[in-house]
Design a protein that fits this description.
This protein has 16 helices and 17 strands. It is an alpha/beta fold and 457 residues long. It folds into two domains: 223 residues, Mur-like, catalytic domain (UDP-N-acetylmuramoyl-L-alanine:D-glutamate ligase, 3-Layer(aba) Sandwich); 139 residues, Alpha-Beta Complex (Protein-Tyrosine Phosphatase, Chain A), CATH 3.90.190. Strand 9 and strand 10 form a beta hairpin. The protein is globular and about 70 Å long. The structure holds zinc ion. The site of zinc ion has 8 residues, from loops.
């Protein structure tokens, strides 16, 4: 055994323990320390682990959690980087937690959520058995630049995953285009029908053909640039998915029932999460399950029984009142929250928390690409909006320009105690839409006030 492995693994395990003793859940720092001691540690620890990698702009965490549930229900012990530490340091920490002091894996399967840019190195080091690419949307402007940059990062990741079965979103013209550029076996997943009766209109992140720059036409759209795209000029079009959602049977505030066709077999599937984007997450997880060789019944049961966490439609108890927290980081995700609110039958209190720390994205101008105008159309069901966070002022201005009645906006800036009191003081269920660091701050306050798990559990 290489002494560096022993040293790196023990240093990392010790620092994880110390961080937890001091009440901090940081999962990236221990990995960083370990990689300093032994730079090729991840590759060594991954040698005897069969790994599924989940990457793409939106839906990584939820898809990964669904996939993890499938493994557990199939009786295949697996580990995961569950708190969303999806860069190489955090992923290394997860592999170290799964390793003995001599570097042997305790569990031999991993479900790893991976940042798009980090996928280049991570795929190279872990040689995944499956890669799921959820979609490519424009993220915060200041992160990785344009969507083409994100796509090229994922492509490099796939080139570094020669042994993987690759699951691609057929409805995303960007993601689907990867299929022709790689020799791997590909499973396409997609949604064959529109999801919402009246989806918010939004700016497409990919209006022009990736091959010839001609504008796409659509036979239908689900949301954003996703749907039945085709290029009238060069003929590039949505590939036929082997795993398709062929009908949306019932949409509720907590779940959705869909019909799925999986390699010709029709299944009725309950997605135990609301919102159209979770239909995609479920389809992606089901495709991953096919790629990994699990039974369809197992996937179906896992998707129906799955419960979410960490800002992905996470349900909270606000001292007897129900609250859901939906993390957002870009216009596409934000529009999905508005679609969700529009489809609700009941009234709700909407809370927006906008921060501009580096983990949120420094540039908050993306809020102008979100269709907040729809909120004024449903003002009878969203009677009031609470706005908080470092950039609460910008958010309030945006909502005002969207036509939302100014007298029904309440601005809290960074005062989360006052915000929580205000949420509690009114009778409606609460839907909270924070950016990343706002979620962390709010979550800490809420678990202190009402109990709840720490985020690394
Ligand atoms: Zn074209």
């Amino acid at each position: 055994m290489d002494p560096r492995v022993f040293l790196a693994v023990s240093a990392c395990k010790l620092s994880i323990r110390l961080l937890r003793l001091t009440g901090r859940g940081g999962t990236a720092i221990p990995g960083k320390i370990a990689l300093k001691i032994c730079p090729d540690l991840l590759g060594r620890l991954a040698r005897d682990v069969s790994c599924a990698i989940i990457t793409g702009t939106n839906g990584k965490t939820t898809s990964a959690r669904m996939a993890e549930e499938i493994y557990l229900r199939a009786g295949v012990p697996c580990f995961a980087n569950r708190s969303g530490a999806n860069l190489i340091n955090g992923i290394t920490s997860a592999f170290i937690e799964n390793a003995t002091l001599t570097g042997k894996p305790k569990k031999r399967h991993a479900v790893i959520e991976c940042d798009e840019a980090a996928s280049k190195a991570v795929c190279y080091l872990v040689d995944p058995a499956v890669v799921l690419v959820t979609n490519v949307f424009r993220d915060q402007l200041d992160r990785y630049g344009e969507v083409s940059g994100t796509l090229s990062n994922i492509y490099t990741g796939l080139k570094n995953a020669p042994n993987a079965v690759v699951c691609l979103n057929a409805d995303c013209s960007l993601t689907a285009s990867l299929a022709d550029r790689i020799p791997n076996r590909v499973i396409f997943f997609g949604v064959d029908v529109p999801i919402y009766k009246n989806p918010v209109s939004e700016v497409s992140d990919a209006p022009y053909c990736i091959h010839c720059k001609h504008e796409y036409d659509y036979t239908y759209r689900t949301f954003g640039h996703l749907g039945g795209f085709y290029c009238p000029d060069c003929g590039y079009k949505r590939p036929e998915p082997q795993l398709a959602v062929t009908g949306i049977l019932e949409t509720g505030p907590a779940s959705t029932r869909v019909r799925m066709r999986v390699f010709g077999e029709d299944l009725l599937v309950t997605v135990n999460l609301p919102g159209g984007y979770n239909i995609y997450n479920a389809a992606g997880a089901a495709a991953l399950s096919e790629a990994a060789g699990f039974s369809r019944e197992t996937a179906k049961a896992a998707i129906a029984g799955f419960s979410c966490g960490f800002g992905r439609m996470e349900a909270f108890d606000l001292g007897g009142k129900s609250a859901r927290m939906i993390l957002v980081k870009n216009p596409a995700g934000c529009n999905q929250v508005i679609n969700y609110l529009s489809a609700l039958d009941e009234k709700a209190l909407f809370v927006c928390c906008l921060n501009d720390n580096s983990a949120d994205g420094k540039d908050v101008s993306w809020i102008w690409d979100v269709n907040f105008e729809t909120l004024s159309d449903i003002a009878d069901r969203v009677p009031e909006i609470l706005v908080a966070g470092i950039r609460a002022g910008d958010m309030a201005v945006r909502l005002k320009y969207a036509g939302f009645d100014e007298t029904k906006l309440r601005v809290f800036d960074g005062d989360y105690d006052a915000l929580i009191t205000a949420m509690q003081a009114q009778p409606l269920p609460v839907v909270i839409m924070p950016t990343y660091t706002a979620m962390m701050a709010l979550r800490a306050k809420m678990s202190a006030a009402f109990g709840g798990r720490d985020f690394w559990e």
